[in-house]
Description:
By secondary structure, this protein is an alpha/beta fold. The protein has one domain (2-227). Helix content is 26%, strand content 21%. It is built from five helices and eleven strands, in the order βββαααβαββαβββββ. The chain has helices at residues 47-51, 64-79, 81-101, 117-126, 160-168, and strands at residues 2-3, 7-9, 23-28, 105-109, 131-136, 149-154, 173-178, 184-185, 188-192, 207-211, 225-227. Strands 1, 2, 3, 4, 5, 6, 7, 8, 9, 10 and 11 form an eleven-stranded mixed β-sheet that branches. Helix 5 (160-168) links the parallel strand 6 (149-154) and strand 7 (173-178). Mean pLDDT is 88; it is low at 59-63.
Amino acid sequence: MTKLELLSVESDAKTIKGNKKGYLTGILYLAPSTEAGGRDLCPMASAECRLACLYGAGMAGVFPSIKRARIAKTLWYLRDPKSFLAALETDIYRLIVLAATRNLKPCVRLNGTSDEWKLARALAAKFPEVDFYDYTKLPAPWKRTTANYHLTFSFSGTNLPECIDALQHGINVAVVFSGSLPATWHGYPVIDGDESDLRFLDPVGVIVGLSTKGDAKKLTSGGFVQIGGTK
């Protein structure tokens, strides 16, 4: 695992899968929703989504220090966005260099556990040679994408009309399923989104199927967690 000041590299089981596809991912984990107090960083999250947030999954559910570090980053971002942005830029430069030394392409996900699109798009504009990508629950994501900023819309359990709208505008939708992945969801083909986190490589017009992780396994299927097949 490589840890920069703000970005984490090869710190989780999913983003590291991108290495085999030729990409090195830098991901920013902030405290979601109002976990750090103050402004809600996930304004469109449903109640079930908040309960099942990956913020508490993996090693973050084992070591309290990880959550404390994410809260500290978030407080820095909210109190002094200028210096926070400068530190992020430095981290991205370092990621570019690190990727080059390993013959990999750099990519960045700035909303690992948040939904701050302005931050991501501003940095994507400064680094046009880097692929930026995020998941979002904010409506009309097609209005916020750019040549190097890719968005995948996320089903929250309560936003089906917005999901269909996104699909009709060429934006894929991520859905969490219990059991195995179904072949289709509302008429759209389902792909395995757990094979890697490189959403900008996905074909257009698909559902990105994700398995339950962390606290999502405790939720009853049919809302945020959709009913899949039988494993």
